[in-house]
Structure formats: C-alpha cells, structure tokens
Inverse folding.
C-alpha cells in the first residue's frame, strides 16, 4: 500500500492566534484524530515540530547561503508537524486528511512517499544502494 | 463498500469518495447497526442500501460534512423500516423496533468494542474458512464484494454468493451479536487470529493460481492485524501475529524476481528488505513480550522471522537460536510443518545429515502425505549431500504436488539443475 505524508502548515498569524486557544482542547482533538488512525491501522509514523523561534532557515538564493534564525517573518507558511499513513490509495489519503482537526489559516499538504519503484531506473546507482544500508543502520540505532 | 456503480464522471468522483469514506468508517457503520439490531446480516444490508442512497443523494446535494454519520443515520432509518415490516410478522420484534426508534445516540458502548464483536462474528466457527476471510475483509476491512473477489482472484458473482451464503449461515445458526463467552474466549480469539493470518498468507504465498503473491491481499491482512492490536492491546498473540506479518512483509520486494518468479530466502538481496516494516515488526514483537504472559505460536514465529530480519546473510544468521525457537514452537503448537522447518534450521546450524534424520522420521510417521513440503525439503537436503538421483526424484514429486504454478517452476528448475550439478562446484 502506498504511504502518504500529511504535512501540517500554518500561517504565522494562525500560529500566533492559536496561542490564545485552550491547549488541552487542541491536544484532545489531535489525540482523537491520531487514535482513529491507529485504530484503523493506517498510521505508520509522525512527529511534531517545536516553536519556529527555535528554528532557522538556510536560503540558497545567495552564495554563500544565508542563514536566518526563526521566527523568519518573511516565510508565509510554517511547517509544524507531519503524519505518515499507509492507505489503500490517494482517495483514502484525502479522506484522512479531511478529518484532521485544523482551523482557518492552517493547511495540510499531502505527498506520497517515494518507494523503490520510483527509483527503478537508477537501481544500480551506488547511493540508491547505500541508502538501504543507512536506513538499516538508523533502524538499529533507534532500537538500541 | 456497497456493491454499487456509477456511470457519470461526477458519479465516479462521488463513488471514489464514498469508497474512501467506507474504507475508514464502514466497519463502524455496520457495527453500530448490528449493535442496535442484533442482526449482522440486516445491519450489512441496511448499510449497503445507505451507500446506494449516498451515491444518488451526494451527487445531487453534495457530500455531507460528516459522511460517516450520514451513512449511519440513513442505515438506521432503513433498519427501522425493515423492523416495521417485520412488526406484523412477529410481536417480539415490535419491542426492539420501538427501542430502536427511541434510541437517540449512536450507541451506548465504545464503538471499538462493537467493531471487535463484528470481527468475532465474521470469524465465527459456523462459517467456512473461505467465508470467514471474505466476511472479515467485507465487514471489518471496508472492502466491496468486488474488491474482495479481485483480491482472492475469484469471479465477482462467486464472491457475492459466498458472502450472501455466509450471512445466511449466521442467521440460520442464530449467531447473536455478542462477544464470545469468557469460557470460549481463548478459542474464539485463536479463530480470529487464524483468519487474519490466512488473509495474509493467501497473499504472501498463494496456494493456487498462477500468481505467486497477491501483495494487496497480504497488506489487507496486515491492516486487519493492526486494527486487532488497537482493539486488543493486552493480547500478546495479537501483537505477535502483527509482528510476524510485518516482518514477513518486509521481504516482499526481494522475494519476487523481475519475471515474477519466487526468490528463495538464501538468494534474496537483503538490501531490498523494507527496514521500516522490520522496525514495526520488532516493535510489535516487543509489545507482545511486554505483556509478560509468555510467547504463543505467532510470537514465536515472529521471533524466528526477526532472526532472519536482523541477519545480513544466510551464513551470519543465528541458526542455533532459530533451532531453539522451533523446539519451543514445536512444544507449544506441535505440527509436522514446524518439525520440517526445524529440520531446515538444523541443516544450517548442524548438518544436512542431522536434518535428513528428522525428515525421515516425518516420512516414517506418514506426516503431510499429500503435501509438496516434505519431498521438497528432503530433495533439497539430499542434493546438499550429493545424493543427486534421490534428490531429483523427490523434487520432481514435490513439483507434481505443489498447487502454485510459480512454485512448481522453481522446483522443476532445481530438479533439472541436478543433472549438471557437481558436489565440488
């Protein structure tokens, strides 16, 4: 089954406004959404991102690249977190995305994760082959 | 999903949306209805009618904000109509129909429990194994009869008939919409696990037909398994089964050659194993062990699969641990298939000679008489011992007995290869 990433993006204004909302309510709504995906057996991964104040952006428009500390006011959309789900098809991915409890100013971008078949033409490429080994190593690290 | 079709492009879009909604909420809709009507067959019929109505109504008025609740509400109305018609026939129904009309909420119990009951009923012992698998996918997996038919590679009318007959059997046997009695819980849970694993294995290594794997079917098995774990988080064997399926699935890409023929474990390119599936499998195995109630047959098989998953090659595989795990598995769930697999592990950990003695004991006890498994393993061991003529006879016999065409091809190739095989090469 294909895997899709639901990428949560918010405008800076919406993020600012959300600070007035009841955090517990948000956690509960998101928790219920997560639970429904666990119960359906579709969730395979996910993670949240900390406040953009802690982040920074490396912009390659100039050489050398320009590093800007958060909250990078010129960026209109902020990447806040993601889910990875394994579902039957794109239609189902859309249907899950619709259920995400987000409000005005927030968006979900939904992207299919590439798999081996997407790189079939480059199967002999050294790095494509190495990548599997790296994933292997990382999986071991995470487990230990 | 309901077995309904749409002809127009707009209708097609609605049908796809309905299909996705049904995938996610179908089991809940049916479970809610069944909890109210106490009749799974009627619940499913009403849900089907609600889907048919959704196609018409959503195309006309747009998709409602909460499509799952819409389907449940419409299905409920259909159930009330059905009960009304039956009121006249049987006084007993009248009271239930009244309760149904008066019931305001979606049900009084957590919906997960109702979906679990639905799964127990789909896997009820009054049904044939085939029907159990089909119903589990149809009622709990959110698939249409058409999709289930395609996954099992049978004609759609055959599958529809199978499902109709299964629903009739449930009604005829008077199966109540209830969780199994505590006294029979263990046995019934084993039945559910068996059905979920069968859905998986029929996809992982098809027992018949031309295709060697039906990956989508196996993936539906994994999905049912994840669902079961979410509903029964305290059952170690639910996690053990999921672990086994995730670990086996990790090999999908590597075990099919470009021409579609099977690639044996020893010949697989292990860099193509799916690391995230292995990680999920090992996590599920840890959850099984964390329950602290010992390892059942699925958990033990998962532990064996884990040994393969973490080894970089056949040679670096910890075969002696695998032999020990098979020893325990043979005691927890004795079966000639386990003995045979243990023999293969012994051949790797110890010697083909030692393994052959185990297999010969199985032959002497007339185990698995009509199966290709014993001659195929025996042929393999004899070939390793350089006894080519005997090996060829066994492999040819295995090829005659095997049901799957792709597996037959592999066995025939092995038998032919022995003609030019030299022990020193």
């Amino acid at each position: 089954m294909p895997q899709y990433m639901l990428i949560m993006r918010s405008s800076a204004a919406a993020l600012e406004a959300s600070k007035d909302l009841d955090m517990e309510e948000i956690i509960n709504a998101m928790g219920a959404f997560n639970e429904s995906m666990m119960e359906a057996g579709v969730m395979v991964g996910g993670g949240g991102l900390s406040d953009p104040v802690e982040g920074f952006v490396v912009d390659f428009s100039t050489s050398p690249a320009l590093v800007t500390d958060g909250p990078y006011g010129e960026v209109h959309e902020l990447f806040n977190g993601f889910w990875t789900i394994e579902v039957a098809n794109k239609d189902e991915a859309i249907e899950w995305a619709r259920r995400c409890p987000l409000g005005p100013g927030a968006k979900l971008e939904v992207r299919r994760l590439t798999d081996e078949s997407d790189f079939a033409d480059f199967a002999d490429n050294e790095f494509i082959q190495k990548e599997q080994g790296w994933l292997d190593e990382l999986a071991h690290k995470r487990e230990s | 999903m309901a077995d309904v079709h749409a002809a127009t492009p707009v209708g097609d879009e609605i049908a796809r949306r309905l299909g996705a909604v049904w995938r996610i909420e179908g089991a809940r809709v049916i479970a809610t209805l069944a909890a109210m009507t106490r009749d799974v067959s009627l619940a499913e019929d009403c849900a089907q009618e609600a889907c048919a109505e959704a196609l018409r109504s959503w195309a006309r008025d747009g998709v409602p904000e909460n499509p799952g609740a819409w389907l449940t509400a419409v299905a409920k109305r259909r159930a009330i109509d059905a009960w009304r018609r039956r009121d006249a026939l049987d006084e007993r129904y009248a009271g239930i129909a009244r309760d149904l009309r008066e019931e305001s909420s979606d049900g009084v119990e957590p919906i997960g429990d109702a979906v679990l009951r639905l799964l127990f009923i789909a896997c009820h012992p009054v049904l044939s194994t085939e029907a159990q698998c089909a119903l589990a996918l149809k009622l709990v997996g959110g698939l249409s009869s058409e999709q289930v038919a395609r996954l099992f590679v049978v004609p759609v009318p055959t599958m529809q008939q199978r499902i109709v007959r299964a629903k009739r059997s449930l009604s005829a046997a008077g199966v109540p919409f209830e969780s199994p009695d505590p006294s029979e819980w263990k046995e019934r849970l084993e039945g559910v696990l068996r059905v979920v694993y069968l859905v998986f294995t029929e996809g992982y290594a098809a027992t018949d037909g031309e295709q060697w794997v039906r990956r989508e079917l196996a993936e539906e098995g994994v999905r049912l398994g994840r669902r079961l774990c979410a509903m029964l988080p305290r059952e170690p064997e639910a996690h053990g089964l999921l672990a086994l399926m995730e670990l086996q699935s990790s090999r999908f890409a590597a075990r099919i050659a470009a021409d579609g023929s099977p690639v044996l474990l020893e010949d697989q390119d292990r860099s193509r194993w799916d690391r995230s599936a292995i990680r999920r499998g090992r996590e599920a195995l840890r959850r099984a062990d964390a329950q602290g109630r010992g390892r059942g047959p699925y958990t033990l098989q998962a532990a064996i699969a884990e040994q393969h998953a973490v080894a970089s090659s056949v040679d670096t595989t910890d075969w002696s641990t695998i032999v020990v795990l098979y020893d325990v598995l043979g005691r927890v769930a004795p079966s000639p298939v386990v003995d045979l697999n243990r023999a293969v592990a012994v051949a790797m950990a110890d010697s083909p000679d030692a393994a052959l003695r185990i297999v010969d004991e199985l032959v002497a006890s007339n185990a698995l008489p009509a199966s290709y498994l014993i001659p195929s393993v025996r042929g393999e061991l004899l070939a390793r011992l350089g006894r080519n003529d005997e090996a060829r006879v066994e492999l040819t016999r295995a090829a005659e007995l095997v049901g799957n065409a792709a597996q037959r091809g592999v066995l025939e190739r092995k038998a032919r290869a022995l003609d030019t095989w030299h022990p020193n090469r």
